[in-house]
Amino acid sequence: MISQFFVLSQRGDNIVFRDYRGVVPKGSAEIFFRKVKFWKGDEAEEAPPVFNVDGVNYIHAKVAGLMFVATTRANVSPSLVLELLQRIARVIKDYLGVLNEDSLRKNFVLVYELLDEVIDFGYPQMTSTEVLKSYVFNEPIVVDSSRIPTLGPAAMFMQSTKRMPGTAVTKSVVANEPGARKRDEIFVDIIEKISVTFSSSGYILTSEVDGTIQMKSYLSGNPDIRLALNEDLSIGRNVGNSMYDYRSSAGGGSVILDDCNFHESVHLDNFDLDRTLSLVPPDGEFSVMNYRMTQEFKPPFRINALIEEAGPLKAEVIIKIRADFSSSVTGNTIAVQMPVPKYTTRVSFELESGAIGQATDFKETNKKLEWSLNKIVGGAEHTLRAKLTFSQESHGNLTKEAGPVSMNFTIPMYNASKLQVRYLQIAKKSKTYNPYRWVRYVTQANSYVARL
Amino acid sequence: MAPPVPNLPKTSSPSQPSGKSEVADLKLQLRQLAGSIAPGSDDSRRELFKKVISFMTVGIDVSAAFSEMVMCSATSDVVLKKMCYLYVCNYARSNPDLALLTINFLQKDCRDDDPMIRGLALRSLCSLRVANLVEYLVSPLTSGLKDSSPYVRMVAAIGVLKLYHISPSTCLDSDFLAMLKALMLNDPDAQVVANCLSSLQEIWSLEAGNLETVSREREALLSKQVVYYLLNRIKEFNEWAQCLILELASKYIPSDSNEIFDIMNLLEDRLQHANSAVVLATIKVFLYLTMSMADVHQQVYERIKAPLLTLVSSGSPEQSYAVLSHLHLLVMRAPILFSSDYKHFYCQYSEPAYVQKLKLEMLTAIANESNTYEIVTELCEYVANVDISISRESIRAVGKIALQQYDVNAIVDRLLQFLEMEKDYVTAETLVLVKDLLRKYPQWSHDCIAVVGNISSKNVQEPKGKAALIWMLGNIPMICVRGLEPYTITLNFIFTNSLVILKVRLHLLTAAMKCFFKRPPEAQKALGVALAAGLADSHQDVHDRALFYYRLLQYDVSVAERVVNPPKQAVSVFTDAQSSEIKDHIFDEFNTLSVLYQKPAYMFTDKEHRGPFEFAEELGSLSLGTGSVENEIPAQSYEASDNDLLLSTSEKEESRGLGNNDSAYSAPGYDTSLISLEDKQVQPESNFLSLAVPTMPSHTSSVFDDLLGLGTPILPPPPTLKLNPKAVLDPSNFQRKWGQLTTSLTEEFSINPQGAVALKVPQALHRHMQGHSIQCIASGGQPPSLKFFFFAQKEGETSPFFLVECLINTSSAKAQINIKAEDPSLSEPFSTMFQSALLALSPS
Questions:
Q1: Any idea where the MHD domain is (chain A) (predicted)?
Q2: What is the pLDDT of residue B383?
């Protein structure tokens, strides 16, 4: 049972503020904002999502550059409150199509209306977009997603969200699009976040795929759907039934997930039999299934990096990146970073000849090399050379002073785990009924690191 | 449709709510529209209402428009109605008179044909929070609970709780609770059931102790019938209500193990839920149910690992953190069960510091013989981390693992390699750890010597690193002289520079002494410089310690050595920062904030807010009532965990000294850092001492030496005065009194030579004087010169104390006593008594 709920902008303004129980003082939003902004004073440490000031617990989640905050004096379940905050954000997004400061400000009355139904006296009530539809009357004012301002320096609040934002689907679930009648369609996104750590010799130390099958349905009449996954999919890597594991891994190419969980609308009656999920998708966006895999997989990029002394007060860095995937696939928004020794004063970069869409930078303040590439086509290899100048002699081991190299990227239509949606079946209401089905794959780096 | 906020900034920063003219303007416009039924007037009203609400949101007081808002509220437009309700609920509490105006239309809406309007009106009516309006609540609530629409019943169920918070008696006197109970067990709508449960739980836990029936009612909630009824329907509930039910189930006490397995089988699939709150609530049920079945309990750990790890990696960073904190708690309870999962706890570079810290602690806890190599290798990578605090934590983690393990060889090597990185903070942390390692494994000294000896003192900037280095210099004989050399050069600087932290200066003095004992010829000069600089130090503690050493040396070098450099015993166990009792208590509060804060609820919530939701606490199904634990002590030990994993020597001793001074006396001369503390408390006198340094005023100064707990004892006399045989005075009070009082009597006399012989065992005198109701609080010195401190109290609880300093020369059989009395008029009789007691001492 929470006491208050509010949403703050990056500057700390209240965009909505709702007091459900009246036991936490009014100034809580300001107290919260100051605390988050100046957490531990000089140390640039981030405030944890949950903290206590004068007996009031502040629980917050950052979503789309906004802070969703709940306060309470009770010893609540933090997970419950954090899940609730995320859910509120998602419901708002379902309604508004786009969730950002602008859309929220334009629709704050609608948001109040939602909040009134979502929480009563601090207890969560209904939180499904589907159910809420019949209780909420404001029409969303749709914000043109093309003019969503970039967030720029406010990156402090941006923090890489692990779950990818619902891709390009920015259509409100409830709003009637002007001019056109509502189009029946359903989006299924297989989003994978991969983490890989390479040792200095290029050997894979750890690897993990965290995936989610995300669905956003605009289907009218809530038809049944069936989602079929790889037939040879097996779950539970370390758990018993080794016979089965043994056979399937011997078959090669099978997908073995460590574990997974499902949205509550999912029926698993046939899952053990033929790996199909059946569900009646509620309106709005939700994760059908989350999964985790530590089975070995082929990392999409190979990183080779080295740093060498090149005379007194000088060193050279060479970073090579090879895209280890099919040439029909292209990775984009690639960013490579590498911390260099603290006493580096100057860096001159040398890109390969004819490099297009690449940029380099030396961040003086935190002593980092940055290399960005607009895209990398599968099979391609790119190299960056950088000459460092030091202000003092380096003592001992340069590799202890620099690195590791970390990489960020997005690869559409690629997935590391090989988990596939074999088919997506929608129960037909009539012969002509043939809604659009979009199944998309995307892989992103979560923590992709090569040590020196 | 203008967005509401863009036109605000001129007037409306929340900190300076102005906007008076806007409010007046709004009032005017509202008034104009109030009665209007012209087409489009609802749209204009919506716009105006929106403005009002947006002002309200940013904190501008728009309560002035209350009556206008109410006038406009007679509308059939639902959106308008909702805005109006929101407004009214926000300001009703501060404007109770105006709130009365709204009752009429709210009551009317409660009887509307549309169930949604009824629900809305009822919800708002109950949210006004105005005490003198409760009479209007009872009848709409009663009909609300019986309403045909589940929406209205759902609202009414929470409405009862709202009523209770406004006026408990009105709520309890009506029949509401019985109605809620009936609804909870019979209503077909799951949300109605859930809200009834929420309300009942909260009301009954707030009422606990007030009514006889309450505890019975609460037990009834936990009866097999109710719990099973809810659990069997659990899939009908939404995920939040599922959490509520699971929470209730975690407090249920099954009658036999079949029940336990039934419940667990029933809930098994809840572990696959995507909502982390549901999964954690389920885990709580599993863990609590199996508490008494060790093997099943362990299976539960195995079973919940995978779902927890999936939740950690699938949610938002905030959700991950909440789950990871719970995983952390479980790992700390049963590290061995997680020892093969260590790779999951490797840090990722993108993770925030608070996540990485948890992971480091987990890695430290699960390190065992099979995985230590990998874990330490990984931790060593983090040492180069850009984030300095993580780098530090990593070093500490490595050190902590080294302290846990038998085979530390490899780890020591790695630690020593850190020193070669020549990063200030790395060096400092590493030195602290090397020092702790040496305290536990003195046999590693040789390995450390070469490396530590090579550290250039200018690379050690951080105080705690310096202190640790100097400690080592003083305690590892082979490196001491060469190592200290650079310091002697800068000694004067160090001592005169107030920036050099106190601890470093104190350690330096001690180290100089220790070096001197080991290599007198080489270290003499350094010691001389150190003592001179120490005596000139402006800080009292440093000055006093230097003086103390100086006199000690002057008195007898071998005594000084025993005092300053006694044989050290290897430290086998470093204290755990948090008591297991507290850890258990946190476990009892699984799936609450306690786990994230790593402290039990009573440390961060006040009682009234703890009460409502710690529903089962008093039901006895959980251990430890909060009352049984003294608030202060756990709080302190928690604080301690915030500090270094292993406090540096003096830090630890200092905190001990502060908490409990007794120890200073039982360990004569060992805890040198304690001395400085004691000195502080005797400051007034030692100031005067400092004026007389070179000439050594004989008796006052030695007072201090003994106060510092040097150690051996003497003499006695009998009475005309009645003393309290059970006088109690703790050492710190003794020192305070000693500092405050002036000497009221000084006497010299001879003692029985035979008695003097008995003094070879100081305890003999302690016991002897005790027999005369005079307590010894400290003793010291070496034969023939001994010194004792005694105290005694006149009979009676609050009677004045006598404090005695007694110097005895056993070879000349002379004694000198200095008496300080709280009542100086009694000095004479007490002196007589003391002397006769002392004279009565004979060899036994």
A1: 183-451
A2: 84
Distance from CA of B98 to the nearest CA of A (A): 19
pLDDT of B805 over the 80 cut:
yes
A115 and A12 in a common domain:
yes
Q: What does the pLDDT look like over A122-147, one tens digit per residue?
A: 999 999 988 898 888 888 887 765 44
Chain A environment of B120 (Cβ under 8 Å): 116
| Residue A292 and residue A334 in one domain | no
Residues A311 and A288 in one domain: no
Does A86 or B404 have the greater pLDDT score?
Answer: A86
Residue B604 has its nearest CB partner, among A45, A52, A128, at: A52
- As a whole number of angstroms, the distance between CA B12 and CA B60 comes to 7
Provide the CATH number for the domain around residue A435. 2.60.40.1170
- Joined together, the tokens standing for residue B550 give 């100086």
ipTM of the complex model: 0.89
Q: Which residues of B825-836 are buried (b: 16+ CB within 10 A; e: fewer)?
A: ebbbebbbbbbe
Compute the nearest-CA separation of B321 from chain A (Å). 8
What is the pLDDT, as a whole number, of residue A361? 94
Residue A265 and residue A340 in one domain: no
SS3 content of chain A, % helix, strand, coil (to 5): 15, 40, 40
What residue type is B784 in one-letter code?
P
List of chain A residues whose C-beta atoms are within 8 Å of the C-beta of residue B319: 61, 79, 82-83, 86
Most confident of B30-39, B158-167, B771-780, B805-814: B158-167
- Residue ranges and CATH numbers for the domains of chain B are 20-246 (1.25.10.10), 580-642 (no CATH), 711-839 (3.30.310.10)
Domain limits for position A126: 4-135
| In a domain? residue A159 | no
Within 10 angstroms of residue A67's Cβ, the number of other Cβ atoms is: 21
Enter the tokens of residue B809. Answer: 């020369």
Residue A146 forms part of a structural domain: no
What tokens appear for A227 in the block?
A: 């989602």
Contacts of B532 (CB under 8 A, 6+ apart): none
Record the tokens describing residue B431, joined without a space.
Answer: 């030195």
Q: Shortest Cα distance from B541 to chain A (angstroms)?
A: 31
How many structural domains are present in chain A? 3
Best interface-test mutation with B: which of A33, A60, A80, A212 has the largest number of B CBs within 10 A?
A: A80
End of a domain among A135, A163, A196? A135
Which one is predicted more confidently, A243 or B279?
B279
Mean per-residue pLDDT for A427-432?
78
User: Which residues on chain B are in Cβ contact (under 8 Å) with A75?
Assistant: 589, 592-594, 601, 604-605, 609-610, 613-614
Which residue in the block uniquely carries the two structure tokens 């402290």? B599
Domain shared by A123 and A28, yes or no: yes
| CB-CB under 8 Å, B3 with A112 | no
Nearest CB to B280; choose among A22, A77, A102: A77
Q: How far is A95 from chain B (nearest CA, A)?
A: 16
Is A177 part of any domain? no
> Contact A264/B281, CB-based, under 8 Å?
no
DSSP annotation string for A182-198: PP-EEEEEEEEEEEEEE
How far apart are the C-alpha atoms of B792 and B39, rounded to whole Å?
Answer: 97
- Mean local confidence (pLDDT), B198-210: 86
For chain A positions 288-317, those within 8 Å of chain B (CB to CB) are 289-292, 294
Task: Say whether A45 and B353 touch across the interface (CB within 8 A).
Answer: yes
Say whether residue A1 is in contact with chain B using an 8 A CB cutoff. yes
A408 lies in the same domain as A418: no
Question: Are A194 and A314 part of one and the same domain?
Answer: no
Whole-number pLDDT of residue B655: 38
Q: Are residues A425 and A291 located together in one domain of the fold?
A: yes
Q: SS3 of B188, please?
A: coil
For residue B568, name the pLDDT band (cuts at 50, 70, 90).
low
Window 49-68 of A: residues touching B by CB (8 A cutoff) are: 49-50, 52, 55, 57, 60-63
A186-239: per-residue pLDDT in tens?
889 999 999 999 988 889 999 999 999 999 888 887 889 999 999 888 887 544
Encoding tokens for residue B532? Answer: 């001179």
Q: Looking at CA atoms only, how far is residue A331 from chain B in angstroms?
A: 20
Within a domain: A158:
no
> For position A176, what pLDDT does the model report?
58
